[in-house]
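Why this split exists: single-chain examples teach little about how molecules sit against one another. For that reason, every record in the complexes split bundles all components of an assembly together and asks for one structure covering all of them. Below is a record exactly as it appears in the raw files.
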Amino acid sequence: MSADKFLQIENLLFTVVMLLYFASMILYFAFIAARREKLAAVAEILQGLGFVLHTAALVIRGIGAGRLPLTNQYEFATSFAWGLCLVSLVFVLKYRFQVLGAFAAPVIFLIIGYAAMQSRDVHELMPALRSNWLGFHVSTAIIAYGAFGVSFVLGIIFLMREGMKDQSFLDRHVPSREKLDLIGYRSVSLGLLFLTFTILTGAIWAERAWGSYWSWDPKETWSLITWLIYAIYLHLRLRRGWRGRAAAIFAIVGFIAVLFTYVGVNTFLPGVHSYA
Amino acid sequence: MQFAIGLLLVLTLACSVGSVINQGQTYEYYAAAYGERAAGAIMALQLDDLFHSVWFILLSAFLCLNLILCNLIRLPSLLDLMKREQDPAGSLGSRGSVSLEGVGDPEGFFHAMGFRSIRTGQGEEGPWLFSVRNLAGLWGAWVCHLGILLLILGFGLGQATMEVYTIYGLPGDSAAIGETGAILSIDSFDVDLREDDTVEQYTAGITVRRPSDGKEESAQISVNHPATLFGMKFFQNSTGWAADIHIKKSGEPLQDQVIYAGDYVPVSDMPDLVVYLNAFYPDYVNSPEGGPMTASSSLNNPAYLYSVYYRGQILGMNALLESEELTIDDYTVTFDNPRNYTLIQIKRDRFTLLALAGGLVVMLGLILAFYLQEARMWAVRGKDGTWTVYGACRKGGVLFGERFLEEGKKHGAAEPPQKQEL
Ligand code: HEM
């Protein structure tokens, strides 16, 4: 099969995946509006199916392009949505927490929608990008961003929970404040570990490609800012009285920094990462 | 810790300021961009080179000091905590954060909770079991802080002592590498193009000689594949065009030499007259807007965009093909033999490995802190032969409690779960 054929299949799959994510988002909304648990179960299945096909689409694109599909804005955006879906499904299953899936669905849909607006052309890579470290760098970033996306969603759920009436429909489906805070902490932990790995592999790669492992390029600086924000989150949680609300706010701010690092830096600030 | 949070916040803000203000510009640039008052403030606060400013470095040094003190102060209490957590006597008298009564198979319960080695003993009230898991997890924050310290130290020392040189040239050229006493020769330089005219790879063959002991080492370097020779790292950094320039005076050859795009050549017998090669176009065409551009990177129609200066005043600027001559009074100038030159960066940073080690230690610390949650379990046998099992996990909170109750029920806890607050 020719490379073009693979890319055509990927294109088709991508559309199907978008529709599945969209349908799951709508069903999750309906679940909250109509208060029917069945709807959430179906939404979860659609999201899971979307995730499986999404995985297939990425693999097929990788075969078609003859390299890891992680090098331009489209590929990174679709992988970002994939990473968020992966981490959120893992957390939904691990903590039996469907409402997390419901709140993650619009974020996943927004990111894959952003991917849909990017050019899907496959280009040969410039020599500096042809490195195995790029693969490590970007795949760890996807997990980190996915985990931070989940902690963002958890932060929002946490803040919303404060306004919920006891024994309301959502209240029964959302864990206690303490548990929410702990799950949020777990997702930030996962994110921070992988962000550290991302920065480290990025530094190793930059050293080999450009001769300098850290040069305060805006993207580097923003990844450090993100890292620092989550470090502050960790220390805040250790202080009595700051666990919970303040931590939730920092998890939200942290993800905004993540998004800025990802989209904003390329748009607003100059640097070596802007070639994507 | 309050202080640490404040310091981290200030650093975060400083970094965002440094990323928003374009670094390394002049007062005039900032005045045009932000107004004169802001520009004055930027220069006074060294925000034009924030990441190398005195105050940013002091702030980082403060962070290091803080980390050192914090780790030193916490070392004895951590060692003490290790000892206490391992001592069954400390736990057996207490009630843990969760407990279950009537457990029939305590060992199975312990194993299911991830506790492997179980100690047994005989107390006044009967036999007991005790186990502690993931003691190393207690060291997570400590190790992470140590790693950050090493990382900053490695980076800072590297910045302070690093030597960087750049040498550009064509195959056959040699040049001394700064004051290192070594000489770099460029043996070859190849640009591999793909079918679609984009660049696959730039590869330079280099030899470094050290006249002091006559030693010589050679290597091939390409983008992403640097080489280390004599303790220095050589990077294939970038490339550009060079060509031969021929100057004749009254028809007689006067001067033949290499000229690099972006560089100039003074006329040998009249140095006030300067030929500048602004740019080189391998496949020269006019762009739709009318300006010069290149249609491909193949040498189909080489053209040289030059300008001529006399005592700093521009005399003219134009594009010259190889078949054409530029005439200035008695002088005629031609260009030919265009080829790619290589720009090689040479670097000696003795502290890169320290910074890398720091980064790896940070990773290790985070894994310990997040994924090895220290916990204890102990059990005491009651008169009826069943066990009361207790558990405690510093960072597990309700998640540990829930898992404890769930696994406990699977292992025969008869009584309904009893929750206790510590
Ligand atoms: C001024 C610098 C810093 C100081 C004085 C400081 C101090 C502390 C202290 C006292 C703790 C509590 C330890 C415990 O309860 O086990 C802690 C925890 C921790 N710190 Fe720092 N810290 C600093 C910077 C950082 C930075 C930049 C990071 C980067 C990620 C970091 C990562 C951690 C981690 C991972 C923990 C453990 C948190 C947890 O387990 O939830 N620290 N720090």
